[in-house]
Automatic annotation (TrEMBL):
Keywords: Hydrolase, Magnesium
Annotated Nudix hydrolase domain residues: 142-269
Similarity comment: Belongs to the Nudix hydrolase family.
InterPro entries listed in its UniProt record: Cyclic_Pdiesterase, MutT-like, Nudix_hydrolase, NUDIX_hydrolase-like_dom_sf, NUDIX_hydrolase_CS, NUDIX_hydrolase_dom
SUPFAM superfamilies: LigT-like (SSF55144), Nudix (SSF55811)
Protein name, entry field: CTP pyrophosphohydrolase
GO BP, one annotated term: DNA repair
Native species: Pseudonocardia autotrophica (Amycolata autotrophica)
EC assignment: 3.6.1.65
GO molecular function: 8-oxo-7,8-dihydrodeoxyguanosine triphosphate pyrophosphatase activity; 8-oxo-7,8-dihydroguanosine triphosphate pyrophosphatase activity; 8-oxo-dGDP phosphatase activity; 8-oxo-GDP phosphatase activity
Enzyme class: hydrolase
Cofactor(s) needed by this chain: Mg(2+)
Length: 272
């Protein structure tokens, strides 16, 4: 049975959201401060009408409750919906009755760890993930959270030559981007970095790839950027000596890159 929306636990509903920007800021801050936590799934249920098919959730450690309390401070509204994992979403499931017939009378007794928050938009045919927040909290590694924009112009990708005086990765070619500030979502961080470094307002969609390197202590989220407003300028020459467009052949021509996997990653981007 195909369903646009996979099984999930909703923490904040659309009708509870008054200030979306503030809610996203709180989600980013909560993810930085809260570690992953367990939940247990139990009996299946089905709400009347178009309520969908769900599984009851036992929040034994209080992680979901604590998360909701942090997100739904005023001006957000609290609806009082009980926690549950949606199996068949009422807006997109192709056959709620068939799903309920298959699952009626059954149940689960399994535990999971909640490791990530998603900000999504769902309509009758699509589900789009707009933001992702990994729960790191006290269990976070020592890796530094970074974002990078892979700007594409046809068969070319934009790279910046890092200034030789930079403490980290001097004198190599890198994608524009930078650090994620405390309480800032990766999407916002990338928009800010591209605005500060290149003077553009970029259309930032879903993350494209991720590079985690414990030896270097970095956790880099990469985003494909194909659309932006404004002319690209080097507004941060103290960070990048120059900006330049490269083709796939250029990347293979012994170009000094900030990370050895860039040849493969950027080559894949140029082949999309």
């Amino acid at each position: 049975m195909r369903d646009v929306v996979p099984a999930h636990v909703t923490v904040v509903y659309p009708e509870e959201t008054v200030d979306a920007e503030l809610l996203l800021e709180r989600a980013a801050r909560a993810a930085d401060e809260m570690p992953a936590f367990p939940i247990r799934l139990g009996a299946f249920g089905c709400a009347e009408g178009r309520g969908g098919v769900f599984v009851m959730v036992e929040d034994s450690r209080g992680g979901l409750e604590a998360l909701r309390d942090r997100l739904l401070l005023p001006p957000q509204r609290f609806s009082g919906y009980p926690f549950h994992a949606t199996v068949a979403h009422p807006s997109t499931a192709q056959s709620l009755s068939a799903c309920w017939t298959q699952l009626s009378g059954s149940g689960l007794d399994v535990s999971f760890r909640v490791r990530e928050l998603l900000w999504t938009v769902t309509d009758a045919s699509t589900r789009t993930v707009l933001e992702r927040f990994a729960l790191t909290g006290s269990s976070a590694s020592s890796r530094v959270a970074l974002v990078g924009g892979v700007l594409m112009d046809g068969d070319r990708v934009l790279l910046g030559l890092r200034h030789p005086d930079r403490v980290s990765f001097p004198g190599v070619w890198d994608v524009p981007g930078g650090h994620v500030e405390p309480g800032e979502s990766p999407r916002r961080a990338l928009r800010r970095e591209l605005r500060e470094e290149l003077g553009i307002e970029a259309t930032v969609e879903e993350p494209w790839s991720r590079l985690a390197d414990d030896d270097l202590g970095i956790d880099l989220s990469l985003w494909l950027i194909r659309h932006w407003h404004g002319d690209i300028r080097n507004l941060a020459p103290h960070e990048h000596q120059q900006l330049r467009w490269f083709t796939a052949r250029d990347l293979l021509d012994s170009l000094p890159l900030a990370h050895p996997t860039y040849v493969t990653l950027l080559g894949d981007a140029l082949s999309i």
